[in-house]
Amino acid sequence: HTYPPENVEIIYSSYKEAGKKLKEKLKKNKTQTLFHIDGRVRALHGSGILPKRFELASRRTGSILNFVGEGESWAYFDIWQRYEKLKIFRKRFWETLIKIGALLGILLSIIKVIEEFS
Question: What is the pLDDT of residue 53?
Fold first, then answer.
């Protein structure tokens, strides 16, 4: 869909405003705000807004009717995506670190056993 520049500006300005408000809330109470953002994004995904927007569901297409709401949803998704990527990175890093530690432990045990019997 092609939208007039005025409507695109409405989306972008509501995105900026919602982003500022969310960042202020994150400064005040980070944990609660992240839970709120996660719930909002899950609701967006469950209701079909995200699959429709990113054309993940072939049967769901549509046009934007609420430009302010679209900008707010974009802000929620953007902040959620940043924190989710960081969470995934931390999890993968920790799993890799544990695997490396386990390998080092096994190697050191083998070396110690070889030293004892030689």
Answer: 60
Q: Which two tokens stand for residue 118?
A: 């030689």
pTM here is 0.70
Q: CA-CA distance, 79 to 19, in Å (whole number)?
A: 8
pLDDT band (50, 70, 90) for residue 118: confident
- What six digits make up the tokens of 44? 């967006």
Could you count the other beta carbons within 10 Å of the beta carbon of residue 32?
A: 11
**pLDDT band of 49, cuts 50, 70, 90:** low
CA dihedral in degrees (67, 3, 82, 89; nearest 10)?
Answer: 140
CB neighbours of residue 79 within 10 Å: 21
